[in-house]
TrEMBL record:
Positions of the PEP-utilising enzyme C-terminal domain: 272-535
Protein known as: Phosphoenolpyruvate--protein phosphotransferase
The keyword rRNA-binding is assigned to this record: no
InterPro entries: PEP-util_enz_mobile_dom, PEP-utilizing_PTS_enzyme, PEP_util_C, Phosphohistidine_dom_sf, PTS_EIN, PtsI_HPr-bd_sf, Pyrv/PenolPyrv_kinase-like_dom, Pyrv_kinase-like_dom_sf
Record flagged with keyword Transferase: yes
Annotated ranges, domain PEP-utilising enzyme mobile: 152-223
Residue span of region Disordered: 1-38
Amino acid sequence: MAAPRDFRGHPASPGRAVGPVHRAGEPPAPSGLAGNGSDARAALEAAVSRAVHELRELSARADPESAGILDFQIELLLDGELLAPALARIGAGEGAALAFAAALNDQIDEMAGGGGEGEATHGDPFVLRAVDLMDLQHRVLDALAGRTRADFPPGAVYVGRDMPPSVFLAHDWSSGGAIALGAGSTASHVALLARARGVPMVVGLGALPGETGEPLLVDGTRGMACLHPDARQAASPSAPDLAPLLSPVPACEPAAWEPLRAASAVPDRPFLFANLDTLADLDTLDPAVVDGVGLVRTEFLLTSAAEALSEERHLAVYRRVLDHLAGKPVTLRMLDLGGDKALPGLTEGDPAGVLGTRGVRFLLAHPDLARIQARGLIRAAAHGPVSVLLPMVTLPAELAAMALLFDEEAVRLARQGIEGRRPPLGIMVEVPAAALTLDLFGQAAFFSVGSNDLMQYLAAAARDNPAVAPLYAGAETAMFRLLDLICAAARALGRPVSLCGDLAAEPAAVGRLLALGLDGLSVAPRRLPALRAALGAAFPALPPGRA
Ligand code: PEP
Ligand code: MG
């Protein structure tokens, strides 16, 4: 049996799959047949009509996003500008196929020379790329030659230099399979489609060997391919390799609550925010007595898998909160599922899993769910000042991955004509590794300390285990030392930092928390009166009725 051989590329769509190689065929050689002069012109026009007809048929069966890409190809074919150079060549005596192939080759060369093709870029996915023109070229040449496009076997791994979007769309992916490209781009149409359909894909693999039928493993999370994987490699789950996502780090928008500072009559007073767990909490929250909402635990707001998988439901509950707050800023935390937080149908919960696939780790492992929530959040942000908080972040790469996902969904919504606004993303500081490396999180718009989890991870004492409760409580000294570092790092980055764990609701701790220079404290509505009283003592100049 052949030995395994590894190849490194760029991750374009996460997940892993093993299947027999299907090597993409060479493009059809233009024959120059189909006549000259007026014959050739008529033959080319008929082939273009046939290609348009095929694309319309594909588009009618496709989901809205795929249909958008196919409609874009139809528009290109119907646009006289694309055909004009080919018709000019026919006018000069060339045959239809040669004229069309050569005319498109000129345009393809021009685009490929522009630098985008073949590179794993994170650019705008909705730009015309050389591969789109090649796709059209092959389709029209097939039509001219009277050939029908051959699909490839279900479950196979498509191996080629690049993949035309229409080949992806015509294929049935329900039996699995994957894509391994020698060139390609992470921002191409086909990469976008692969991510949306959950098809593992790696680009930039270079000259990948392997004949049709040989087994190939594609690990779209790590950006790797392995020819002839052994049984262990084929079975082992994919460990996320987030390194390729570490750069670039785009500038971020400020948190939705930052403008409050400038407007505050007492600029050094920390903001007083409420934590919300359910919509019923709104009944107990008078928006006049808070500066906004510092934490919405969306995993408690959406009470079933069906709700969590409904973009409309996300939007509806977020709008309820925004409407109640009447213009005050609202920080919505993405689903903190996994560990002890269950959502039957999505995760059954496992108290021992608090060190496992929880929070943002769970979301990145379930990108379809994350995309649904991101779309709900982006749409909600069009209706009020929304910031989005990511739970259980450990590495900057996790934030970068989620930021990319938000960027992509914001672009998709815009293309679909749906109102939205890309909200600023901040992180929960509740994993010691993140707390100690906050200086590396320049991509975060703000920070919110989750003292409940930070304390349990610092003390290695579960927050809900009475047997180790004294250790949990005893870690307070360590906690305050770390809070000092967190606040200093946030200040150095110029980002606001608040605290939304139960520590903020302990009146005895308020003095020490204020001394740290925290920008905000966020507590459950019923804990607000005590916190307001403690803050009032520190800021006697506050007007009555206001925190
Ligand atoms: C925390 O960990 O402090 C926090 C606010 O998040 P949760 O309690 O939901 O884990
Ligand atoms: Mg937490």
